[in-house]
What we know:
This protein is mainly alpha-helical. The protein has helices at 3-9, 12-30, 41-48, 52-61, 63-67, 80-93; strands at 38-39, 70-72, 75-79. The chain contains six helices and three strands, in the order ααβαααββα.
Amino acid sequence: MTFQNQLALISPADLQKLVEDSVRKVLAEKSGSAPTGALRAQQAASYIGVGKRKFYYLLHNDPELAQACLRIGAARVWPKAALDAWMERQVAKGQPKKREAA
């Protein structure tokens, strides 16, 4: 039996259900994930090793980090490459030394 003959045996309603189930499965696997290479605020905070509150503090106080984001509709995302470049610049600037106890 050829594929065309097998396809003729499937009712349009059954075929539609198979397609819908396949689409739902793919969407369920993709749901909640950011675009490849881009992170939402919580993910970006984790990526650079800080909490969400500290990340928002950095956004408010560091224009370079704030400019690294992209807007997709109302959402802001940070490309991993932009976060990597920002971290490299922070390393190049040097970290402030801790104050020594007197």
